[in-house]
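Reading a protein record of the kind used here takes only a little practice. To see the layout at work, look at the sequence and tokens printed below.
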Amino acid sequence: MEPIPRVRPPRLCKRRGRGLFDGEMTKFGEKAAPSGQKHRRSFRPNIHRLSLYSKTFDKWFFFRISQSAMKKVKEWGGLDEYLVRTPDEVILYPFAIRLKYEILRKRAELQSSETGMSEVKQGLGSVENLAKEDNSKQGVLFNR
């Protein structure tokens, strides 16, 4: 299993590394008065404080989340899908990145246990088939 990469929030906006902002950051522009005088202003992303449910962990997690990320979470079917589908360079929140890799690890464990169970079932099926063949020669049949 590969180690969880460490991702530092960029220096451009410290706030960006403390929530699910979907790559959004503060933008700057100018407000023009009727006289033509320009004033510097900032455009911040639409941020909400929200609890999101993880199906994998069967638990609620608290996040600061932008409106665009919230739309993607809703559209893609939940927090787990959003974290798995979004690259680390866009997430940038260390807690969310750790959570993403935990989700992937749990999914891999579940998948491996399911394939192991199916192999066991296939093996049992073949043993039962052999038993049917042996007993059919003796005149005994299994009804399953």
In short: Residues 14-29+39-138 form one domain. The chain has one domain: 14-29+39-138.
